[in-house]
Amino acid sequence: MATLIRQSLRLLAVLTVLTGLLYPLAVTGLAQWLFPQAANGSLIVRDGRVLGSALIGQPFSDPKYFWSRPSATTPFPDNSAASGGSNLGPANPALADAVRQRVAALRAADPGNAAPIPVDLVTASASGLDPHISPAAAAWQVPRVARVRSLAPAQVAALVAQATEPRRFGLLGEPRVNVLRLNLLLDAAGAAEPARAVAHVPQFP
Description:
- By secondary structure, the protein is mainly α.
- The protein is built from six helices and five strands, in the order ααββαβααββα.
- Helix content is about 45%, strand content about 10%.
- The strands form two sheets. Strands 3-5-4 form a three-stranded antiparallel β-sheet. Strands 1-2 form a two-stranded antiparallel ribbon.
- The N and C termini lie far apart (about 70 Å).
């Protein structure tokens, strides 16, 4: 019996060192060596300031910026500490009311735009933290952003194309636009103020 206990304790010690110390150190070291940007949170840094992560959405409410898709996180949109969706089903009247309010807010912000509104601009994701919108959602916002910034729509559309990320490996997922990166490109094109998240300020209803 004592022999079995000693063997068990030795095995426990060996496995603790291997799986609790050496393995995490090796994985962390490899990640920092091979993928340092991703391993440190895919942070976007400008002039020494961390503006956010390329993986976490941020709410923009100023009409001169492209807006992210709605977020159902609480107590404010895109709260990375409370990732989650609204859990409203397609037959839930509350979801239909929320979509109608978002459509009305988008139409009010750009009354001259009669094009159909892409679905990702009026529905929240399961995580509530999507950093991307579809190219169609970005294209829909081009007229508003161009008008507010007094830029040519073609110039803004070119920035959207520049910020569009292709399918991974050409196969996985769909083309997408990172909203924070796009807004930073806009600022570089001549905005008066730097792009920033409007934390704790709700998006359109």
